[in-house]
Every structure is written in structure tokens, then in C-alpha cells.
Amino acid sequence: MDFDFDLFVIGGGSGGVRAARIAASEGGAKVALAEEYRMGGTCVIRGCVPKKLMVYASGFSRTVEDGKAYGWDIRQHGFDWGQFRPHLHAELDRLEAAYRRNAQNAGVTIFDSRAVLDDAHTVRLADGKTVTAKHILVATGGQPFVPDFPGSELAITSNDIFLVDELPKSILIVGGGYIACEFACILNGLGVEVTQFYRGAQILNGFDEEVRGHIGELIMDSGVSLHLGCDVIEMEQQDEGIFVKATNGKNRHYDKVMYATGRKPNSGGLGLEDIGVKLGRKGEIVVDEWSQTSVPSIYAVGDVTDRINLTPVAIREGHAFADTVFGGKKVKADHALVPGAVFTQPEYGYVGMSEEEARKDHEIEVYATAFKPMKDAFAGREDRVLFKLIVDAADRRVLGCHIVAEGAGELIQLAAIAVKMGATKEDFDRTVAVHPTIAEELVTMRKPVR
Ligand code: NDP
After folding, report:
1. pLDDT at 253 over 90
2. The domain 5-141+264-326: what is its CATH number?
């Protein structure tokens, strides 16, 4: 049977674009891609990139303050969202154009349209036109999930925060995961009065307990009003703002309420179930280790598969798919020891297991140190950094590395290479320290604390 294309990709985010480009440029495939919103997807348009630029923006309040201790005479006149926002969006426009250009330069045909599946080899575009392809890749990502409760329609999400006309004076952020913690720090740094509710006993559920406690304290010390074991009962728009009734009885008005209560896969309304593509309990597309769905001609990568929902993972999955199906080499995306960072301030970088996870199957030694770094201590700050290594007591391998410090996202990328290579604690120890740095603690922790 003749198809219009060898590959049709639905979704122009990180995973989809990588797969399309590699299939076309290295696999010689005839490729089309449909995107209903903006090329670049969550990462570029309403996720990692604008978030990181806002992290940078918010960091200046601290830099300016600390500058005084270092002899600088600088005065803060406040953050001007009206000046920053257009600059931010110009950068996103530039990146979006680059994504489009790179895909087109690789020979990919782009349809600026929603696409749904008609059958195992046919997609239907928004104008009703149908296109056939030998293989279809679903890379439609995810979207914020807001629970249903009275007044929930008043909540904004991370999709909206980059688009607000003015920064709110006060905001309630609900959730204790990546997005909630990152935006609590960002908005606090930009001068917004931030309250954060998390329903559990400590933020960053699933991460290393010691790290969670450490970051929780830092967030509170930085001025965020963090309430644990607390949730919203209902919300109502009133003249003074959004009135929030809370389970802890601290009811009050906020200018805005942002929900960061997780994300769900964008698998609805695509016709997937009708043609036999199996979905999981959360709506995620079920795939095997080759990213192949229950319908052999249809593959899926990235957040819509809800494996590890990180941009670099989606990119690896998309690349592995293209190599395997079009490049003549069988490649599986490797989901082991994926490092990551939570861009709180300070950041948290991690690779490998938490202490609690490691204890389940290993006899371990824990090396940890928390201290005031020279730069902050000089500026009169009480903040402490945390370095932690989890070591297998039997074979001495470093099972996990956790860093809470300025630049931890950068540091963990390097530590992750060693951990991925199977470095032992003794490999860390025989590496000479770089002095004076905060990261030298990684190679100078001599005695286990536990
Ligand atoms: P997370 O899964 O990280 O966190 C969701 C939070 O919302 C948790 O604290 C969860 O609580 C809470 N929650 C869930 N449902 C409810 C509810 N009904 N009522 C109240 N609270 C609720 O999701 P995010 O939205 O923060 O981020 C989504 C994903 O995006 C991340 O998991 C990550 O994969 C990715 N991401 C990565 C970033 C990075 O790499 N730096 C940055 C941002 C996002 P509980 O723990 O109790 O279930």
C-alpha cells in the first residue's frame, strides 16, 4: 500500500520534533508533523524555558541585596513585569521559529493543525483532510490537572502564569511538586507575597526525605508562607480578590490562585481508543520499551506516555524511535539513572536513589553534609547547602547523589556522568578537590553519617 508519508508525527514538542528531524535527515524518511498550537511544545512555550528565564529574573533580588555586603551601592526599584514580559515572549517566539526552521530544514512538512487518528495509518486534520502514513508517532505531551471543587474555575495554572498582564500582589500556590515549589520561589523572588498549600506532611513527595526537609525549611526562610497538611475547600471571586476557604481555617483573599497539582497526558479526543490503542489508568498511552503502542504502526513518546516526564527523556525517546524504525539501528531509550533538577532557589539536583529507596534493597552508607557556603555567609545569610551521597556498602557504588545549592542543576549533570559510569565512593575520594568551591564537598566527605 502506498502512503502519503513514511512517518506522521502528532505534536511539535521536544519528543515529536526530535523524532521527525532524525527520521527525515538521518533515516531518509518522508515525514509530516502536525501541531495545533505552537512549535516547541510545553518545554519551549510554557514550561522549562520561560520558567528558567523567570528563575533568572527572580534571582536578581537576592543578588542585589547580597551585593551590598560585597561593597556595592545598588538600590532596588522593584521588578517590572511590563518590561520583562515582552522580552520573555520575544525569546519564546525566536525559539519557536528555530524549532520550525530546524524541522523544515530537515525536510519535515509541517501542518499547523490539530490531527486525530482515523485508523492505524490515517490521520485527519482539523479541515477534514486525511493523510496516510506508514508509521504514526503520538507526541502530544500533557496538560495541567486541576481537581474539581467549588470555585476551581478561578484557578490559573502554569499555562497561564507566563501570560498574565500584571504580576499579582499576592498568590496562593497549591501543590508540593516541581511546579508549585519552583513558582513559589520564583514569584517570591519577584516580590509577590506567596502562600503555598501542600496537602501532605512535606513538599516534594517521592524525593529524598532529608532533602525534602531541607528545601521545605529554605522555602519558608525565604519568605514563602508554606502550609503543610493543608488544602483548599472552596474559592469565590469577591471584590477584594479570590476568597479561599482553607482546611486549616486560615481563610483569606488572594489576587491569584495557581494550581500546580500535577499534569495529565494529552490523550483525549485523538481517537486512540477507537482504533485499539491501549491507554493506562491516568490516560497515558501504554508503550513497550521501543515506544510502540498496542497498534503496531503507532508509537508514542514523551509525557503522553507518562514514563519520566522530562524534556531530555522525551528527546531520547523520540531519537531512539527514529533510529530504530528509520535508522536501521535498534536503540532503546535508557530510563535508568536519569538526573534532574528542581529549580527552587537554591536548586535541587539529583541522580539515582533517595536514601529511603536505596535502603529497601541495599545495605548502604550515607555521606551527608550541610553548611553555610562562604558566599552566603559573607552576605549574612543563614542558608545552608546540602550534599549527600548514598553508597552501596557492599560494592561501594554511589547509588544516589543529591545536591541542594546554587547551581545544583549544573553540578548534578557532571556528578551524574560519574554515577552513570558506576563510580564508587573511593573514585569520588581519589578525585582531588577544586578549592575553594562548594562542590568540593562531593569529594571530601570522609565519614558516613549513617
Ligand atoms: P508533580 O507531580 O511534581 O506534583 C503535583 C503536586 O500536586 C503534588 O504535590 C501532589 O501531591 C499535588 N496534588 C495532586 N493532586 C492533588 C489534589 N487533588 N489536591 C491537592 N494537591 C494535589 O506535578 P507538577 O504539576 O508539579 O509537575 C508535573 C511534572 O512535570 C513533574 O512531575 C515533572 O515530571 C515535570 N516537571 C519537571 C520540572 C523540572 O524538571 N525542573 C519542572 C516542572 C515540571 P501528592 O504528592 O500528595 O500526590
Report:
1. yes
2. 3.50.50.60
Inform me whether the pLDDT recorded for 1 exceeds 90: no
Write down the CATH number for the domain with range 340-443. Answer: 3.30.390.30
> Does residue 199's CB lie within 6 angstroms of at least one atom of ligand 1?
yes
Assign a CATH topology to domain 152-261. FAD/NAD(P)-binding domain (3.50.50)
Residue 227 bears catalytic tag: no
Domains 152-261 and 340-443 share a fold: no
- For ligand 1, atom 34, the nearest C-alpha belongs to 309
Tell me the CB-side half-sphere exposure of residue 51, using CA atoms within 13 A: 23
| DSSP string across 259-306 | E---EEES-TTSSTGGGT--B-TTSPBP--TTSB-SSTTEEE-GGGG-
Q: What is the pLDDT of residues 349-385, one digit of tens each?
A: 999 999 999 999 999 999 999 999 999 999 999 999 9
Cis peptide before 86 (omega within 30 of 0): no
Residue 54 CB less than 6 A away from ligand 1: no
Rounded to the nearest angstrom, the distance between the alpha carbon of 290 and the centre of ligand 1 is 26
pLDDT in tens, 182-234: 999 999 999 999 999 999 999 999 999 999 999 999 999 999 999 999 999 99
Q: Distance, CA 218 to ligand 1 centroid (Å)?
A: 19
- pTM (2 decimals)? 0.97
All structural domains of the chain with their residue ranges: 5-141+264-326, 152-261, 340-443
Is the CB of residue 262 below 6 angstroms from any atom belonging to ligand 1?
Answer: yes
Nearest CA to ligand 1 atom 41: 342
Give the Cα separation of 302 and 335 in Å (integer): 12
